[in-house]
Amino acid sequence: MHHRQHTGPIKGTGQGDAERIQRRSFLKFAGMTALAAAAFGVDVPGLGLGKAFAQAGAVDLGAGDIGILNYAYALEQLEAAFYSQVIRSPYDGMSRHEYLLLKDIRDHEISHRAFFAKALGRKRIPDLEPNFNAVNFSSRHSVLTTASTFEDLGVSAYNGGGAAIRHPAYLAAAGSIVSVEARHAATLRDLISPLTPSFAGWDVVDWKGLDVARAPSQVLPKAAPFIATSVTASRLP
Amino acid sequence: MDQDVSILDSIDPDLSGRLVSKRDLFARASGKLGALATTPLLLAAVSTEAFGQGLPRQIVDVLNFALTLEYLEDAFYHAALSRPGLVPPQFIGVFSTISRHESEHVSTLTGALGGAAIEKPQFDLTGHGKYPDILSNFRTLALVSQTLEDTGVAAYKGQAPRLYGSGEVLTTALRIHSVEARHAAEVRRIRGVRPWTGAFDKPLSKRQVLAAARPFIAS
Predict the structure, then answer these.
(1) How far apart are CA B112 and CA B172, in angstroms?
(2) Distance of CA A30 to the CA centre of its chain
(3) What was the pLDDT predicted at A237?
(4) Looking at the partner chain, which of A23, A159, A183 has a beta carbon nearest the beta carbon of B175?
């Protein structure tokens, strides 16, 4: 894992206005997080719990808002690691258009990961070890289907976890992330099946026009095959 | 007011980053939507009197506000798809899907509100003459579609904290919110622009959203 050096929006990508907006938004939410962190006593010296869990071979996400934030942090870690690998070793025949989209997505996931790491401070779980053995990074089909699976899963996780968040500032932050994940999901689905209803297909949007919502206990088993570290959520819904 | 303009500018399609796309149909979208930021007016239609099915007043307000936007989107796509030849054949599947979702959102919200649901307003889809060719020019239609979807995403996001503690109501709003984001991304791709503006989508306040929607409300 060589992704830790990327802790902010990547410069020199020629994004212009979009990049400035991203940076400004991030600063805004970073500020909000500082307030929220103070409210939760996140900066109180911790007990090195993360390390203890890692030594025991399993990581528990914790309870309450800290648990939900660690849950999101775990998923963002997974996504950031995945897209970093995709950009390091582009699949055969990746077009310039696809490369630019995937690089944007990688940068977003790295920003999301950094956001949660900062919000959690010392209460954050340790770095998770991904397991992408099932992914063929030289195959467009393998990469894009895995990516869309991650994005749909992420959307369902935020949708299902939102109501469990106790602090309104965290709910607002999660809301600002989930719609970006949904934009990713639609885009990846469109790359796989261009100009079809797939971007918001029947497998994700029901007859009431509602996207999927899943509880942590439903999401983690689906993410588990891609995470070498054992993750438990015994104190989450 | 200046602040409102700058915030609305951030969702102006013409200011968002462009990708070189094989499907970029349009050399350049015509006309900016900056003029959407007209004087904020509260919609008379958004009633604060009603209490539907025992829901707290704040929840009713938020849901009726969302319903207003869904009514507008529903009317917009229904009108667009009713004009033969307006939506190019290759995009019919996408816009039909979006249109169906907006109808479903209207049903879902009116169902949740029961007797507290507001009536459907009368709409002027030209935005009081701002988009005279909205129902004859697909480029204008797609531009307004993107703006409505991006605004919808920001509107739900802005209201989510007001649904704090409402449990299932909040979850339902979140589940609509991400569908609107899927729509926004797909329409942006059809227009040949980036499907997103950054790593964090911004919320809009009710006042900001109503200012953007006001030109489309006839009554």
Answers:
(1) 10
(2) 17
(3) 87
(4) A159
Q: How far is B78 from chain A (nearest CA, A)?
A: 16
B71 and B22 in a common domain:
no
Residues B12 and B113 grouped into a single domain: no
Boundary (domain end) residue, out of B25, B54, B83: B54
DSSP-assigned letters across all residues of B189-217? HHHTB-S-SSSSPPP--HHHHHHHHGGGB
Handedness of CA A82, A33, B12, B174 (dihedral sign): positive
Question: What is the model's pLDDT at position A171?
Answer: 94
Higher pLDDT, B194 or A49: B194
For residues B149 and B74, state if they share a domain: yes
B48 Cα to chain A: minimum distance (Å)? 23
Structural domains of chain A ordered from first start: 30-232 (1.20.1260)
Residue type, B82: S
Task: Note whether B43 and B129 are same-domain residues.
Answer: no
Q: Which of B160, B175, B186 sits opposite A190 (nearest CB)?
A: B186
Nearest to B134 by CA among B43, B37, B215: B215
For all residues of chain A together, what is the average pLDDT?
83
User: Cβ of A209 and B104 within 8 Å?
Assistant: yes
**Is the per-residue pLDDT at B175 higher than 80?**
yes
**CA dist list (Å): A155 to A148, B146, B158:** 10, 21, 18
Angle formed at CA A75 by CA A74 and CA A80, multiple of 5 degrees: 100
Domain of residue B42, residue span: 1-54
pLDDT in tens, B69-113: 999 999 999 999 999 999 999 999 999 999 999 999 999 999 999
Percent residues over pLDDT 90 in chain A: 74
pLDDT in tens, A163-217: 999 999 999 999 999 999 999 999 999 999 999 999 999 999 999 999 999 999 9
Chain A residues with CB under 8 Å of B202 CB are 21, 25, 176
